Amino acid sequence: MNETDRVDPALSAGNRKSLESYRATHFLWEVGNAVATVTLNRPERKNPLTFESYAELRDLFGQLKYATDVHAVVVAGAGGNFCSGGDVHEIIGPLVRLKAPELLMFTRMTGDLVKAMRACPQPIVAAVDGVCAGAGAIVAMASDLRLGTARSKTAFLFNRVGLAGCDMGACAILPRIIGQGRASDLLYTGRSLGGEEGERWGFFNRLCAPEALLSDAQALASELAQGPSFANGITKTMLHQEWAMTLEQAIEAEAQAQALCMLTEDFSRAYNAFVAKSKPRFEGN
Predict the structure, then answer these.
(1) Domain boundaries in the chain?
(2) pLDDT digits over 242-260, tens only?
(3) Fewest CB within a 10 Å sphere: which of 103, 145, 178, 205?
């Protein structure tokens, strides 16, 4: 019996899928060497999101948990900017005419994008250049790693349009990245966080030259994709779930998770490679 035989037939046939041939409608999608690149592609408007692109991104990240050929994801923007947030004419304008039930449907849908990004097992690397505002700042925040440039301008500008800073999980996630006081600064004022300040604060893992940003992000994603993808998915899950655990619960949960990883073939491959004084070749099982 091989590994495929052990998988529930419904899961194997109905859910496990290749996303290399996925055809995106509202952004660019490319897969190579187990790294997927999502490129927001409305450069003339600094890559704003629409109702449709929100929904497609949510659905795509939801599918990634079943992907067989994607082990890491890069999110980038075209034309020297990351994302200017929700499209003023295609989202903000219609929202002011909606009633509370429809508005709640919209805010839940945007929140579902963040939940899908956090729930997919692949590490997500955001390549942030230029404008990164509103929902764009949230997408960068919801990623696992962020590479920026000195000219990056990240703004959680919700209060500047009369809204609260508690949008799409910002009050939960942002303080865990940069600290409560710094998150309060950004969420109360809506000011832009420059690239160098963002790196000092820990929002950006590192800064890159603008012309090298995408290739650097893809190289980092490729390095992660070549690692033990099953174990990386467990790491991402535990990083997320342990927010709501006591220390005792976290230690027990990690003990169970690590024991599960010790059952994988990748763990045996790593040991055998160490004995042979060679580099392990992980296969994600």
Answers:
(1) 3-225, 229-275
(2) 999 999 999 999 999 999 9
(3) 103
d(CA 248, CA 5) in angstroms, rounded, equals 37
Contact 75, 125 (CB under 8 A): yes
- Residue 6 — pLDDT band, cuts 50, 70, 90? very low
DSSP code per residue over 102-127 = HHHHHHHHHHHHHHHHHHSSS-EEEE
Torsion-angle region of 33 (φ positive above 0: left; ψ -120 to 50: alpha; else: beta): left
Residues 96 and 120: beta-carbon distance below 8 Å = no
Closest to 50 in 3D by CA, of 100, 103, 14, 93: 93
Read off the pLDDT of residues 49-66 as tens digits, 9 standing for 90 and up.
999 999 999 999 999 999
Start-to-end CA span in the chain (Å): 15
Name the DSSP letter for residue 148: E
pLDDT digits (tens, 9 = 90+) for 103-130: 999 999 999 999 999 999 999 999 999 9
Show the tokens assigned to 150.
């000195």
Helices (H), the chain: 3-6, 9-14, 51-63, 93-95, 100-119, 135-142, 170-178, 180-189, 195-201, 213-225, 229-241, 247-261, 265-275
Ramachandran bin of 142, using left for φ above 0, alpha for ψ from -120 to 50, beta for the remaining angles = alpha
Rounded-to-integer distance, Cα 79 and Cα 168, Å:
26
Q: What is the pTM for the complete model shown?
A: 0.90
The partner residues of 193 in beta bridges, in order of sequence, read 154
Using an 8 Å Cβ cutoff, are 195 and 251 in contact?
no
